[in-house]
Prior knowledge:
Blueprint lengths: L2 E6 L5 H14 L4 E5 L7 H4 L5 H10 L1 E4 L13 H8 L4 E7 L12 E7 L9 E3 L5 E3 L5 H17 L4 E6 L7 H13 L6 E6 H10 L6 E4 L1 H14 L9 E3 L4 E3 L18 H13 L3 H17 L13 H11 L2
Parallel strand pairs: 1-2, 1-3, 3-12, 5-10, 8-9, 8-10
Antiparallel strand pairs: 4-5, 4-11, 6-7, 11-12
Helix pairs in contact: 1-9, 1-11, 5-6, 7-8, 9-10, 10-11
This protein binds nicotinamide-adenine-dinucleotide (NAD).
Amino acid sequence: MAHEVTLIPGDGIGPEITAAARRVVEAAGVEINWHVAEAGQDIMAEYGTPLPGNVLESIRQTGVALKGPVTTPVGSGFRSVNVTLRQALDLYVNLRPALSIPGVKSRYENIDLVIVRENTEDLYAGIEHMVGEDAAESIKIITRKASERVARFAFEYAVAHGRRKVTAVHKANIMKLSDGLFLESVRHVAESYKDIEFEDRIVDNMCMQLVQKPELYDVMVLPNLYGDIVSDLCAGLVGGLGVAPGANIGDAIAVFEPVHGSAPKYAGKNKANATATILSAALMLRYLGEGEAADRVTGGVKKVIAEGKMVTYDLGGDAGTSEMADAIIEALG
Length: 333
Ligand code: NAD
């Protein structure tokens, strides 16, 4: 039976890379009815909002979406579509695996880390105001409920994927109440998973340790802001944003998207690397119960990157987005 999936092309390089990922998924033999829903700055003029109501409605109906990146203006303008979408659909986990792919240039080898980032609160709650004219205040919200459910996801993920350890990352030495509550919540959940090793690290030390000794770590669970920053650091360890996939997961809905943004300077140039979106689509296939197709897609990506001939500029080649997708389709076997 065909799967129903919402496809959000996004803006910037989004339309090109999601088109490439769609072609690869279809070539892997999975039947999907795509419900295309437009979001992002390009449709602001038409709908007066970057996230028209039909987008959320479509995702609520299908339960699954593949999403391209969407531009967020800095400092002023509309609120982030990504943050709004994650909060509106209660997609409380942002899952970002960082796995070395042979052939992708990096100073590191054999990186195999998983970031489980809380996705709905922290400083991303969007509660900000000016205090007079010369000061501004952002409020950091941490709740026991959100911290425990993201922790539970991290431990369940570790059990389901045969991982050995979960590390909670925080700054509870300074933010004793907010980060203290996050740490206490993860510790509490850890007590139910005696077979999984548990430890915690202060976020600044964690960044240094990841650069110096990444092999010591496995699954990490973090509040929203640290999760955002540390996952880009981990994307750097495996060779950059072009190959870093991600997923936003709730109890009944999941939205799969690359870690990177809309890279506006490459928009419409057939230059961007679609690998992160294709690997996000592979995560989606696994979520849909299409594990075999997910393996074929991942295998095709790895083969093309290992050969190093039909790869985009960021991987040292000169292939275009669509030509690299063609090569991956050929490599599916
Ligand atoms: P970015 O990830 O878009 O780009 C940073 C740089 O990384 C690019 O200039 C490019 O050199 C490289 N890059 C990124 N993706 C690439 C790809 N697929 N192939 C090749 N090179 C790639 O980050 P940014 O410039 O900070 O953000 C641009 C916009 O994207 C901003 O408006 C930001 O808010 C938004 N953004 C959206 C999402 C999302 O939709 N989930 C995530 C992050 C950033």
